[in-house]
Description:
The chain is of the alpha/beta class. It has helices at residues 2-6, 43-55, 74-82, 120-123, 145-148, 165-172, 198-203, 206-216, 224-233, 248-251, 260-271, 294-301, 320-336; strands spanning 33-38, 63-69, 89-95, 130-134, 138-140, 157-161, 189-197, 238-239, 246-247, 275-277.
Amino acid sequence: MNEIHSQQAEQPVSDPAAHLYAAGGPPRRGRPVVLSTADDQFALPLAVMLRSLADNLTWTPQVDVYVLDCGISRWNKWNIRRSLPAGALRVCFLPVPMGRLGDVNLGGYWSRSVYAKLLMGELLPADVRRAIFIDADTLVLRDVGELWELDLDGHPLGAVLDPEYRLQEAFLWGGDPGFWGVTPETPYFNSGLMVIDLDRWRREGIGMQSLRLLQMHPERMRCVDQGALNVFIKGNFKTIDDAWNVSWLFYDLPAGTFAGEDGERRKQTYRNPRMIHFWGPNKPWLRPGPAYGTERFFAYLHRTAWWNSVPFAPWKNDPLRKRFRRWLRVWKARILGWRM
């Protein structure tokens, strides 16, 4: 670890008024900033995520969205923009210099886009001092203003504890429990949702040092960027309520899981998620069949330009008259700028 820290270089904060603000991030009255990453393969879920984000803004008037663009075509960018209601989101695509990622693990279903978040410190404008990172394969079911105003209590980021760590920590570190001092007792977060103090992120070199770890020890990083971030952070993060990052894994549990007081709390979390994260291979736009959150996903998919792109979408079996009426309603809403 000394090798990593010895190469850190502090970066000056470009904001001349930076000393006026606490370490928790920018002034609370600032417009929320949401960050995500995608390539063409993830353009569809990104559009669904952004549509759900926009539709659930209840008291936040507008959100700035930065997409780290890992190869999204112009056509798909246009479709993403026309999938969104007017005025809710300001979307900016930032091209990612893919060569900066170097040699990283591309096995399984991983692509280079999952690593792009580690470059956020240098790619985002210098005056963006806080960001909410949301994976593209996520549904946002609550106003993100709640996360924007979260007090990080001096931590560089806030995130939800990952439920799989204690079950598979040996797997996560390539059969080496305690790798680089990360033990089963060290809190371990899921990187699909993070509230980030970008001042700390840049100053401590969190993204770039985590990327270096990935390049030095690819065989240990079974959970790629998430593993590297957890090694570098070593539990120094603010724990966010589980409801902000609920996955199928949380729901697909054996009988008796919800027993007792803690079990009842978890059951209510799964019934009332604030975000649903479709991490892993079980993604509703790729595989048919019932799964946690699938119905909600298709409800938002139908409000995007990709509404007719999934061959096993529920409405594919509707009578022709019903499908025509739905198509007419969608285009009427788009032309007139109505919220659907």
